[in-house]
Amino acid sequence: MKNIIIASTSTIHGSGYLDYILDDLTVLFKETEEILFVPYARPSGISHDEYTKTVTNAFAKINKKVKGIHTYEDPIEAIKKAKAIFIGGGNTFVLTNQLYKNNLIGALQTAIKNGIPYLGTSAGSNICGLTIKTTNDMPIVYPPSFNALGFVPFNINPHYLDPDKGSKHMGETRETRIKEFHNFNNQPVIGLREGSWLEVKNDSIILKGHLTARIFEYNKTPYEVNPETELDHLK
Amino acid sequence: MKNIIIASTSTIHGSGYLDYILDDLTVLFKETEEILFVPYARPSGISHDEYTKTVTNAFAKINKKVKGIHTYEDPIEAIKKAKAIFIGGGNTFVLTNQLYKNNLIGALQTAIKNGIPYLGTSAGSNICGLTIKTTNDMPIVYPPSFNALGFVPFNINPHYLDPDKGSKHMGETRETRIKEFHNFNNQPVIGLREGSWLEVKNDSIILKGHLTARIFEYNKTPYEVNPETELDHLK
C-alpha cells in the first residue's frame, strides 16, 4: 500500500521551496487537507518552528495545512494519527538521531505500510533507503545506528553531483565515495540529481522528473536510467 | 613532547603524492629511517598493500623506509615500537572504525605524548581533532564512536572549500555544514585548505603553507588567519 515520493531536493536553483514538484504533491496528498511535518533535520540549524513556517507557506499554495510534529506532546501518537507525512531536508545525522530518540522508526514504517502518503526531500529521502551510509552530510551528531526506514530496498544518494572535470580540488568525487561504499556494503545506490524523484506505489518504483539518474550496483559499472524507468528490480 | 604535522591533503593538484611537503617531512622524521604507515583509510577502497606501496615510493625520495601496520601480527606492539608514524587519507569512518577495532586509540595517544613524530593527511588529520564530526567523508561504515585522538583541542576540517558563488547546486556549502556543527558542538573548527598544514610542537600549533586558514569558533563570525599564526589559544 506504499504511496511515497522520494525527492532529491526540496528546491531547485532559481525557484521557490517545493515549487517544481507542487503539481505532483497535489496528487500525492489529494485525500487529506493536513500534513504532519517532521522538521528534525534543521537545515542551517534553524528551529523546528521556523522550518515549519517555511513548509506551511509552501503548502498553502496547494491549500494544505501543515502541523509540526514538535508541537505534539506524543510524537508517536502524532505519526499514528497522521493522514499524510512530510520529512524535510537538512542534516541526515541530526534527523536520524532525533527519530531514534523519539522512538519513531517503527511508527513511521507502520504508517507507510498502511498507505499513509509520504514525501521526503534530501535528508528526508536519505532515510527512505536501507541505511544513511550514502548521505552527503557532515556527521555533526552520533546517532545510535545508521539503519534507516527501508521504504525502498536500496540506498539513496540525493543531490547527486557529476564529477567536475575542471576542478583542482583533491577531495573525492561523489562517484568515488559511492565506490568506496561498495567496498563495505552490497546494496544498490541511486544517485538522484536535483529535480529528480522516485514515485513509489506499492512495489513499483519509478524515476520521475526530466533528468536521468545514476545507478550504482555492487560489482557493476555505474549506469544511467531514463525518467519513467521502473526500478523495482533493484535490491 | 608532541611533534606532529596535520596536513589538509597528501597531494596538491598537479604534483605527486606528498611532494609539496617532503622538505618538511625530512625535518619531522630526521631522527629515524623507518616510518610505520597506517593504511586503514583505504582511499578509493584500495588494499592495505597497494596503499603502502604508494607511500613507500613517496618516502623513498627522502630515503625513508616504510612498513605497513597491517604486516604486523600485533598492531598495538607495532605502535609501541614505532619510531615515526604516518596515517594517510581515505575514508575517515573506515579509518576510525579500524582504529577502534584494533584497540589503537590509547596506544597512538601514548606514542604521540612520548614525542614520536606523527604525520596525518586528510582522514589521518581529521582524527587528530577531538572528534571526526567535521569530516567531509561518506559514512560508509558505522564506527563505535565519533571520538578521535585529540592531539589538538579543536576539530579539523581538511580539504576546506570556499563557497562556489557560481554554483546552481543546492547542497550545503562547507561553511553551512560547520555552522550546523556548532548548533550541537562548541569546540573550534579549523578549515585547512589544500596545501596548508598545522605544525604541532609541544603546546605550540602553527599554521604552515602559503594559504590562510578559516577558523570557526562557537558563536563567533568565522575569520581567516595567516600562515605562521600561533593557534595554541583555540580550545
UniProtKB/TrEMBL annotation, chains A, B:
Gene3D superfamilies xrefs: 3.40.50.880
Known EC number: 3.4.13.21
InterPro entries: Class_I_gatase-like, Peptidase_S51
Keywords noted in UniProt: Dipeptidase, Hydrolase, Protease, Serine protease
A molecular-function term among this protein's GO annotations: dipeptidase activity
Family the entry assigns: Belongs to the peptidase S51 family.
Name of the molecule in the record: Dipeptidase PepE
Species per Swiss-Prot/TrEMBL record: Flavivirga jejuensis
